Amino acid sequence: xxNSTGTGNVASSIMRWRSRPSGxxxxxxxxxxxxxxxxxxxxxxSALNAPVSIVSNSLAVHQELAASGAVRAVLPCFIxxxxxxxxxxxxxxxxxxxxxxxxINKDFSGSARVRAVADFLTxxxxxxxxxxxxxxxxxxxxxxxxxxxx
Length: 150
Known about the structure:
There is one protein chain. By secondary structure, the chain is of the alpha+beta class. 37% of the residues lie in helices and 31% in strands. The chain is built from 6 helices and 8 strands; from the N terminus they run ββββαβαβαββααα. It has helices at 40-47, 59-68, 77-80, 112-127, 129-132, 137-149, and strands at 2-10, 12-17, 29-34, 37-38, 52-56, 73-76, 86-92, 98-105. The protein has a 3-stranded antiparallel sheet with strand order 6-2-7, with helices on both faces. Strands 4-3-5 form a 3-stranded mixed sheet. It is elongated and about 60 Å long.
């Protein structure tokens, strides 16, 4: 048996490179597929009838491809909003949202070490609810770029 608790939700949006040179066409979209499992962000692109040019199981690959201008990609907002090279291409894609769950084996739920990690993760998620929910993308991006620039 396991103890589990819903701890939050991660919002996603289609991201594209921030400064596209004039005259360059809008890049296609990508979709993520993990080991044959259809992720919510992949289903969202399908529902939007977005063309699929690349299938990858790595969000880091999608982030770099979108930043390079090769594609548009559905990414969690907390990733895309903090990357100064990316900009949202539309609103949050509700169907691409993902719930976060913390699951603890019942046999270990009484352990002080496990409880300390669980409490830390729960607090980390609660402290970052705004970024995870995709709210106020400018402030998230501004904080990140300020930290990187000095």
